[in-house]
Amino acid sequence: ANICLMGNLNGIIDEKLDYKSQKTTKIARKILPKSFFRMIDKMNLNDIWRERNMDKKQYTFYSNRHASWSRIDMIWMSTELLFSIQDIETETGTWADHNPITMVWKGQKKRNRWTLNNVILKEDRFKTTMEKELTFFFKENKKEETSLQNTWDTMKAYSRGIIID
C-alpha cells in the first residue's frame, strides 16, 4: 500500500539542517522519537522535501518564545509515490507561525494560494462584523496577560477564522 503522511510532527530530524536559533544559549531540541524512525523505516517512507533539498536549510515554524526556526511540518511518503511528485515547496507564511508546504502531483496544475478578496473590505456588513469581533477579542485578551507578539499572532488566527466562516 502506498502511504502519504503529512502534518506538524512537533519534532525535527536533523538539528544542523532543521533548526536555527537567535539565542546564544541553545536549549535541547526535540528530535523525533526512535519509534518514529522505526516506523518510517518499516513502512519505507521518505521525507519528500528533504529528498529534493538535501542540504538546504528552510524552516516551517517560528517560535517567538524561543526566537527559533525549525522544520517540523513534513510530508513523508512511500518510495513508489516519490516519482509522482512534480514539485514541493515551503512557502512563506503570513497569517500563522507555520509556513505552508505545497506539493504538486505530476499532471496537476499548480494552484495559487488563497488570498482575501479585497472587495469585501469595503462592505459595511464585513466592517461591522470585524469591528464587533475584534473589540470582543481585545477585551478578552488583555495586553497585560500575554506578549504583544502572542496577541498579534492569536488575533491573526482569530480573524482568519471569522473571514473564512
Task: Walk me through the structure.
This is Endonuclease/exonuclease/phosphatase domain-containing protein. It is built from 6 helices and 8 strands; from the N terminus they run E-H-E-H-E-H-E-E-E-H-E-E-H-H. The chain has 165 residues and is α+β, with helices and mostly antiparallel strands. The chain has 2 domains: 4-105, Endonuclease/exonuclease/phosphatase (Deoxyribonuclease I, Chain A); 120-164. Strand 4 (61-63) and strand 5 (68-70) form a beta hairpin. The two termini are 36 Å apart.
The CATH class assignment of the largest domain is Alpha Beta
Rg, rounded, reads 19 Å
Low-confidence stretches: none
Tally of discrete structural domains: 2
Q: For this structure, what is the CATH homologous superfamily of the largest domain?
A: Endonuclease/exonuclease/phosphatase
Could you please say which CATH topology of the largest domain applies here?
Answer: Deoxyribonuclease I, Chain A
InterPro entries: Endo/exonu/phosph_ase_sf (IPR036691)
Protein name: Endonuclease/exonuclease/phosphatase domain-containing protein
Organism: Micrurus paraensis
List the topology elements.
Elements: E1 4-8, H1 15-18, E2 19-21, H2 34-42, E3 45-47, H3 48-52, E4 61-63, E5 68-70, E6 73-78, H4 79-82, E7 85-90, E8 101-105, H5 124-140, H6 148-164
Antiparallel strand pairs: 1-6, 2-5, 3-6, 4-5, 7-8
